[in-house]
Amino acid sequence: MFQYSPPPKKHHPRPVYLVVDATYFGERTENSSWCVLVARDPKKQEDLVWGFADTETVLGYRKLREELEYYGYSIKSVTGDGFSGIFTAFSGIPYQMCQVHMERLVEHRTTKNPQTEAGQVLLALAKSLHTTNSHLFYTRFTKFVEYYRDFLNEKSLHPITGEWDWTHRPLRQAVLSIDRLKKYLFIFEHNKNILKNTNSLEGHFSHVKRFLGIHRGVPRKHAQNILHTILLASSVSPDEEKLDQIL
Predict the structure, then answer these.
(1) CB count in 10 Å sphere of residue 174
(2) Cα 81 from Cα 191, distance rounded (Å)
(3) Which of 69, 197, 204, 223 sits in a 20 to 30 Å window from 19, CA-based?
(4) What is the C-alpha to C-alpha distance for residues 80 and 32, in angstroms, rounded to an integer?
């Protein structure tokens, strides 16, 4: 992993409620993709540490944690997507599963226009995450599983392989994902400083990608130098003088 983070900052140790995520560049289908992993303080809109890698790994996120602790930050919580590497690297710290990513995960399995009643109900339940509370959501989810249990457990004989498989496999996978992650969906209820989604970091990534799009085709090393400058400044883009130095 190519680690490229800011120099140590001289400050008093302070508590931080992190948003952690990664964004990719290049083409995954052509094996030319790479990513930047970022830990951000959304309250101060400050990128704290980051690193570049070919892909997300537990090791990459663990290095972010080590740098944060080395600089004296006291990590009070982490909000991230469902990638298990983040949860593993920041074990022992309250973890908030991004509710937007949870909704997307369900939608990916059910599609935006589910053809079954169970799929429609599950998607509606996922979309209610942002406007409900843990007690109501858990109650509704439990009732959903009980009501559609037989439907979810249906199996069909594959006409070619001759093997039995789940008839509604994608929907079943969506249900299992909620069941696995549900205990992390409402951690924010215990502390108002914890963000329930990674929108602030995703928005930051969008600005960065639009800026880099203007300079499409620059070598990976140069692109990472530009990203380093942007993240170091915690802004959308470096000024023209700095950009000229980089390029």
Answers:
(1) 25
(2) 19
(3) 223
(4) 25
Cβ neighbours of 97 (radius 10 Å): 26
- On whether the CB atoms of residues 34 and 25 are closer than 8 A, the answer is yes
Tell me the domain boundaries of the chain.
15-94+196-246, 100-182
Of the two residues 65 and 241, the one the predictor is more confident about is: 65
Block residue for tokens 């600005």: 207
For domain 15-94+196-246, give the CATH number. 3.30.420.10
167-186 tens-digit pLDDT:
999 999 999 999 999 999 99
Report how many helices (DSSP H) and strands (DSSP E) the chain contains, helices first: 10, 7
- Categorise residue 71: left if φ over 0, alpha if ψ from -120 to 50, beta otherwise: alpha
pLDDT, tens only, 65-82? 999 999 999 999 999 998
Single pTM value for the model? 0.86
In sequence order, the 6+-apart residues with CB closer than 8 A to the CB of 67 are 5, 49
How many other C-beta atoms can be found within 10 angstroms of the C-beta atom of residue 8?
10
